Amino acid sequence: MRSGAVAIAGSAARSRDYVALAKPRLNLLVVASTLAGYAMGYGEALGFVRVLGLLLGTGCVAGGASAFNQVMERDLDALMRRTRTRPLPDQRLQPIEGVLFGSALTLAGLLLIVASSNLLAAGVALATLLIYVAIYTPLKRKSSFGTVIGAIPGALPPIIGWAAVEGTLSAPAWTLFGIMFLWQLPHFLAIAWMYREDYARAGYPMLAVIEPDGLSTGRQSVIYAAALVPLSLAPTLMHMAGVIYFGGAFVLGLAFLWLVWRFARTRSVRDARQVFFGSIAYLPLLWILMIADKI
After folding, report:
1. Which residues, 6+ apart, have CB-to-CB distance to 231 below 8 Å?
2. Cβ 252 vs Cβ 285: under 8 Å
3. Which of 71, 50, 68 is nearest to 104 (CA)?
4. How far apart are CA 169 and CA 114, in angstroms?
5. Helix (H) or strand (E) holding 291
6. How far is CA 28 from its chain centroid?
7. Which residues, including other chains, have CB under 8 Å from residue 285's CB and lie 6 or more apart?
8. What pLDDT, in 10s, does the model give residues 217-272?
9. Which pTM was predicted?
10. CA distance 94 to 146
């Protein structure tokens, strides 16, 4: 009886480790952004079951990318306090298990996207994974520019949703991409500042590590947040959304810019954390406003 309970507990622990590889909580934003891209499209609606398949497929591909990333970074994750207890650096799972799990998730996700929408959406999802795993992950070890490259796959989820319903990649889709691209950079830079000692310990050449006074981190954060304000208004100018969205996006953009400017001025961990939480609130609110005021 006791051995059976131990076996069940061990199985549950391994299941939790596999779930940790997929980072489901982090990838919720990926799924939400895919849904936003879908909702802003003007093509024929897919229906509830197919939309569910699209979102589940996108989440699986994102989970596969997370698993591959953790396999590739397990040596450096072992050196960082916030990541050393992950399943791979803690050796609760072996690298081959991570590769097989990531491959299964990716394949299942791509098949779901094809079955629920079209090849274009699946192609964008595959490109997202390849850029993240094959370009961003190794570049992150070599250059602070990796942060910018990492924002590319991070900005593609709304394109997946748009492609699923439209079957094309038109200018409005790339506007959604641009908004998410610019949003990510202050978000990432704030995280890097908060955990700069951890990144330094692992040898990551983050901007916050190679320029420890934080001036460049703060300045770049402000530039990206300032550029986000006018770009976030473009959906109204392109007749994708109405004046209610325009006003709400303007207020949200200025509020986010103020948080970023305050961080750039003080360069404190507290203000970096405020930027992080502000960014987490900003994007869902912007998507909600855009969808609610869609023209």
Report:
1. 175, 178, 179, 182
2. yes
3. 68
4. 16
5. helix 269-292
6. 9
7. 248, 252
8. 999 999 999 999 999 999 999 999 999 999 999 999 999 999 999 999 999 999 99
9. 0.92
10. 27
Residues 70-89, mean pLDDT to the nearest whole number: 93
- Under the banding of pLDDT at 50, 70 and 90, the label for residue 2 is low
Burial of 212-233, coded b for 16+ CB within 10 Å and e otherwise, reads eebeebbebbbebbbbbbebbb
CA distance 51 to 148: 30
Give 294's strand partners.
Answer: 241
Contact status, residue 123 vs residue 149, Cβ threshold 8 Å: no
Token pair belonging to 77 = 């994750």
State the alpha helices, DSSP H only, in 82-214: 95-116, 119-130, 137-139, 146-154, 157-166, 171-194, 196-202, 207-210
Grouping H, G, I as helix, E, B as strand and the rest as coil, residue 68 is helix
Furthest-apart CA atoms within the chain: distance in Å: 67
Number of neighbours of residue 2 by Cβ within 10 angstroms: 6
| 235/248 Cα distance (integer angstroms) | 12
Nearest to 37 by CA among 160, 179, 199, 154: 160
Q: Quick one: pLDDT at residue 45?
A: 86
Could you report how far apart the first and last alpha carbons of the chain are, in Å?
62
Chain length of the chain? 295
- 113 with 54: CB under 8 angstroms? yes
Is the CB of residue 193 less than 8 Å from the CB of residue 218?
A: no
- Residue identified by tokens 């330094």 is 200
